[in-house]
From TrEMBL:
SUPFAM superfamilies: MFS general substrate transporter (SSF103473). Residues 20-114 form the Major facilitator superfamily (MFS) profile domain. It comes from Nonomuraea cavernae. This is Major facilitator superfamily (MFS) profile domain-containing protein. It is found in: Cell membrane. GO terms for molecular function: symporter activity. Keywords: Cell membrane, Membrane, Symport, Transmembrane, Transmembrane helix, Transport. It is a multi-pass membrane protein.
Length: 114
């Protein structure tokens, strides 16, 4: 009777896991770059989108930052909704959906009359 086989511990992380980790990291970096670009450029486009009241340029900047804050605090809810969408329709469909939403937001900024 032969002894039972000894289970071997994995030597390294599988390539597919490393690739997934790198893809998620790149996606996260792009998303944070988008947030930082919006926050840094707010002072330039705030007066064009939000009206100036009483000659104060502070009101449009605060309005733009309020939009930024709403978007930031809605991220967990968006994660839940997109996660449920991905569970039902797959990761590829969810990624396509989120890219379409980002493109729609960029298009909205591009066609703003000002």
């Amino acid at each position: 009777m032969a002894p039972p086989p000894v289970a071997q511990a994995p030597i390294g992380i599988p390539r597919s896991r490393v690739r997934q980790l790198m893809a998620a990291s790149v996606g996260n970096v792009v998303e944070w770059f988008d947030w930082y670009a919006y926050s840094f450029l707010t002072v330039y486009f705030a007066e064009q989108i939000f009206p100036t009241q009483g000659g104060s340029s502070l009101v449009p900047v605060l309005s733009a930052f309020a939009v930024f804050a709403v978007g930031f605090f809605m991220r967990p809810l968006g994660g839940l909704l997109v996660g449920a969408f991905a569970d039902r329709f797959g990761r590829k469909a969810a990624m396509t959906f989120t890219i379409m939403l980002m493109g729609g937001g960029s298009l909205l900024l591009a066609v703003t009359p000002t």
